[in-house]
Input
Amino acid sequence: MRPAQSWRPAPWREATRTFSAPLAVVDLDRFDANAADLLARAGGLPLRLASKSVRVRHLTHRALELGFTGVMAYSLAEALWLAEDGIDDVLLAYPSVDTAALVRLASTPAARDKITVMIDDVSQVALVERAFIRAGSPEGPPVNVCLDIDASLRLGVGAAHVHLGVRRSPVRTPEEAVALARSVQRTGRMRVRGVMFYEAQVAGMPETGVKAPAIRLIKGLTMLELAGRRPAVVTALEEHLGRPMLVNGGGTGSVQQTGTDPTITEITAGSGLYCPTLFDSYDAFTPRPAAFFGLDVVRRPARGIVTAFGGGYVASGPAHRSRLPRPVDGARLVSAEGAGEVQTPLRYPRGRDGGAIGSRVWLRHAKAGEAMERFDAVHLVRGTRVLQTVPTYRGEGRNFG
Output
């Protein structure tokens, strides 16, 4: 296991001193190097950007300029916005029941050319059909759809099986996938473009601590099981449709493993551009943290403890300390208070008093783009300079959930 590179006092700390805190920064040298690393790990396969892991439109375009191919959006309203912004290939990561957005999609032939929606149930097919009716059944291309296929690991059979991985799609077998494809074809308004297998238990589980051997075992068993089931599903669908399909898989933590499957045509990644703390302990790559947020010290309540303004940016997922932000300078959160709603106390190791009142402390978020929902803007830094300040989704007044 290779830990994340240690953080040294960054040269841009002085450059951001005059900016009000809380504030977010992205180190462009590290962002660009992380992009190059992800592209190299993909081994020549197209790499699709997960927008939820960025949530800054300027940086989404930067990733595409650096070599990413297409975007995986997390909301249909977001997908429509990105398509209007000139992104030609947007794959929706999750099914949508947003009636207004579905009607907009059905009403806009140009958007139907650019956007692929995700489905895993016939009820979602019916929603798209109703959207066409509400839109007045406009002419133009069909709605492209991608079938979400369950990539979790099941050990055992029947009701006694153990489920390892996220709870996503109910579609698992070739027969179930073909049945869903038939329901899509019957509409005459939709076209199966491809399938997605997201092996979350490989992409999102760090190999760390006493559980590391078990986690590596789970990852190995997952890839072994998918090596048989994924080609079977893809072959059945391609024989049924009579043409090849897009086959999406992977995530930052599984880029190399997913790329070994010859049925995969593209891989998705995004978190590896920022490298948040949840990616500090992976065997496959060495994280290069690129996104930070700064807080100002407003109190010194006791020796070795300082209190910073803001900081309650806790990541989604199971309630656990791994979801808390982490100071980069050796301090730690006070366990009795954690990351506070409007103030966050930090305890320094023995012999260190921490910063003076008015000084600034820097932290990393546990997840990637999620942190950007707390800031209107992000400062893009290189070396000793702030090159540009750009809006986040929030700063552009875009809230997609």
